[in-house]
Amino acid sequence: MKLLSPAQTRALDQATSKAQGITSLELMERAATTLLDWLLTTLQPTYTTPIHLFCGPGNNGGDGLALARLLHEAGYVAHVWLLPAERYSADFTANRHQLPDGISCQELDTARLPDLPAGAVVVDALFGAGLNRPLTGLAAAVVAYLNAAAAFTVAVDIPSGLFADAAQEPDSAVVQAQYTVSFELPKLAFLLPQNAGFVGEWHILPIGLEPVVIHKTAVDNYYVDAAFLQGRLPARPKFSHKGTFGHALLLAGSRGKVGAAVLAASACLRGGVGLLTVRVPEVGYFILQTTVPEAMCLTDPAPDFLTELPDLQPYAAVGMGPGLGQAEASREVLRQLLHKAKVPLVLDADALNLLGANRDLLDLLPPDTLLTPHPKEFERLTGEPARDDYHRLEQLRAFTRQRRCYCVLKGAYTVLATPDGIIYFNSTGNPGMATGGSGDVLTGLLLALRADKRLSPLNAALLGLYAHGRAGDLAARETGEAGLVAGDLVRFIGPALQELMASPHRL
Question: Which residues bind (6S)-NADPHX (predicted)?
Fold first, then answer.
């Protein structure tokens, strides 16, 4: 799914009205009808539940007014509270005129704010995604009042006061919603950690916006779901053999951290690699041979950490980092790898820490290298802390353009940035995956997909991120989120990839 800017969303609404021969008011009615169905199905209010709709002067307020009328017609108790303004949108005015006499409709002022008891439902339709300045005056006071109330809040389109694609000023007035319900496509703001306390649980409702226009609209941010990945993972040919899917080399492990090598190796094998060789220090030989018998094991001459780079000629892709440690000799192995590698690289964990501590090595990154940092590791790579989540995205975009690499920023809605500056947010995964070793599993899976020459660098990265999160979701059904460990992810990589695999008989 594409993440559109507010201006692009307005243009899409207008194009939909023109293409489908409907007015903007009719499109608003469609949105309000869909919103009514969602509200009644999800919240299941009784006919005596007080529902308070706070409506601003623009089209977001128009959505709220249309919803109030539909609620009243369905037999529910709707109270409308209007934010006074010098000007109102045409669709707001039209919907206000359509309100039946049975609906309580009053203007807000600081001396007259409604009682909002626990059990009441608040619909926030004050301001939508077009807002571009902080709320002040009465609007800010109303937001503060809503946030202090015990009622259950649903934001329409976006929580009032929250910018759709820009950072907030500190201490800005923003509605803290339990649910945010938007239409057709998500907003960038929904996907950033700093906004979680405002957005709550978000839902996207389809309202039939024109798909051809969406397809033609150019964006630089995407939200990746299963439909987005359809057809990107080819079926495995009937007469394929282990050489078909590549021979990968994994450089990993040090004394006390061989488990990271085991997890990455196991994930690589479950990710469908044809052959896997793992290079570990001598201390890891017995562990690897007994826990991952499907992998070949090369031992380094040193007992505790890697000191030598093996011949790279046999390999289709190389991964380095899980459990590696940061010994000086291992740094030199990384330097040699960056100099000599002619195949795709996947760098994680201590390989990234070595890059951050030795920034001259960044100049050696081969094009299309895939890096997988968490936010702190990424900060070490850039040498500059991010001011906020929006700034971090711009840092990420600039970094991948400058270094001609792919970079995965791990977390909720794990982000992939590409050498052309496009950013993809992953839709799968859960908080149970915030556990030691989860990143090692991701590295192994990505290594397997990068070794498959049938996949482009972009498709390998997108499929790996989605399947990693999906494996976590499948595992959590069995273990619960609290009981999830990284080894559980490995067991579900195969089923997650199978869900994405194209049918060999599809026309």
Answer: 59-63, 128-134, 157, 260, 323, 374, 440
Per-residue pLDDT tens for 285-313?
999 999 999 999 999 999 999 999 999 99
pLDDT at residue 505, as a whole number: 54
Give kind and range of the element (H or E) at residue 56: none
Locate the domains of the chain by residue range: 6-218, 242-500
User: Is 119 annotated as ligand-binding?
Assistant: no
The reply to whether CATH 1.20.1050.10 applies to domain 6-218 is: no
Annotated ligand binding at 124? The verdict is: yes
411 annotated to bind ligand: yes
Predicted pLDDT at 507: 46
Q: What is the pTM of this model?
A: 0.95
CATH class for the region spanning 242-500: alpha beta
6-218 and 242-500: same fold?
A: no
Three-class SS of residue 80?
Answer: strand
Query: What are the CA-CA distances from residue 63 to residues 36, 168, 220, 417, 473 (Å)?
Result: 11, 24, 28, 35, 35
pLDDT at 502: 78
Annotated ligand binding at 374? The verdict is yes
Which band of pLDDT confidence, cut at 50, 70 and 90, is reported for residue 504? low
**Which pLDDT score, from 0 to 100, does residue 244 have?**
86
Question: How far apart are alpha carbons 349 and 371 in whole angstroms?
Answer: 9
User: What mean pLDDT value characterizes the chain?
Assistant: 95
Q: How does DSSP classify residue 112?
A: B
What Cα–Cα distance (Å) separates residue 396 from each residue in 15, 218, 370, 376?
Answer: 33, 20, 13, 13
Kind and range of the H or E element at 213?
helix 211-216
Q: Is 272 marked as a binding-site residue?
A: no
Q: Between these two residues, 422 and 113, which has the higher pLDDT value?
A: 422
Q: Tell me whether residue 58 is annotated as binding.
A: no
410 is in an annotated binding site: yes
Place of tokens 């799968």: 428
- 60 annotated as ligand-binding: yes
